[in-house]
Write a structure and sequence with these properties.
262 residues, 10 helices
């Protein structure tokens, strides 16, 4: 419930900020796909977590039993960070997980079948904070699956993971927001609207597969995938977006229809 309060508060905050300092004042409040995106917020932020917990609890218990039977549990759950102070756990978790998520985000763009799921997020044509939540539930299985081992290895405390989650939500909303703010030199560290909008640009407007940063932008600068022109792209999306479903449940079904049809 506490995260739900934070989520609601951040939503109200960015809704107000977008009304005061809009990047694109002409963008309608009740834009196309808004109702579906509100459904994404509810499902991805709340319902999906409960479903994943129900599905994975038994699997993790079975995995732990196997590790115990083989005498490998202590080697797997080393818990290097468990006794470290909050601030150090927070910093390490933010840096390590953000880099791993940057790598996974790269995979979502470069592996064909993963891209079919990630297309849902790139079907956004009017960027605002709510678009942060438009992503296919299939992506979460990829992220959770690849992040489980390092999470178990480091042994971060639950409260640290919670506050990193809040920080990620804050920056994620900011990066997707219809805000005119520029953050100067901070753009080399933190994801922002001026940078992330070029992650969503249509191929006709410039190079694609740039600005993969989730919370931190530093990885894009280090690995040469940063791209921030002085202007915004004229269009967002991908080749063929005009034929892509505009609402749920079509967006959920699209990856499966595409993969089966191949």
């Amino acid at each position: 419930m506490v995260y739900a309060v934070w989520l609601a508060g951040l939503g109200v905050l960015f809704w107000i900020l977008e009304r005061i300092w809009p990047r694109h004042p002409e963008q309608p409040l009740f834009r196309t796909g808004l109702i579906s995106d509100l459904a994404y917020v509810i499902f991805n932020a709340h319902v999906l977590g409960m479903i994943l917990a129900a599905l994975t609890t038994g699997l993790i218990e079975s995995w732990d039993s196997l590790l115990t039977a083989r005498g490998w549990k202590d080697s797997f759950y080393l818990g290097f960070m468990r006794e470290q102070p909050f601030w150090l756990q927070f910093l390490v978790l933010l840096l390590v997980f953000d880099f791993l998520q940057w790598c996974i985000h790269n995979l979502l763009h470069r592996v064909g079948w993963l891209w079919e799921f990630h297309k849902v997020h790139h079907s956004i044509v009017d960027m605002d904070w709510i678009g942060d939540w438009r992503f296919h539930w299939g992506e979460i299985f990829v992220y959770r699956g690849l992040l489980y081992v390092p999470a178990a290895f480091f042994g971060f405390r639950g409260e640290v993971m919670f506050w990193v989650g809040v920080a990620n939500t804050l920056i994620g909303h900011f990066a997707h927001a219809n805000l005119s703010w520029k953050i100067g030199a901070l753009r080399y560290l933190i994801n922002s609207p001026e940078m992330h909008i070029w992650h969503h640009n249509h191929p006709d407007d410039g190079p694609i597969n740039r600005n993969f940063g989730i919370t931190l932008s530093v990885w894009d600068w280090v690995f040469g995938t940063a791209h921030i022109p002085a202007h915004d792209p004229a269009h967002l999306g991908f080749d063929g977006i005009e034929r892509y479903p505009k609402q749920l449940p079509g967006q959920w079904l699209a990856p499966f229809a595409r993969l089966i049809g191949r």
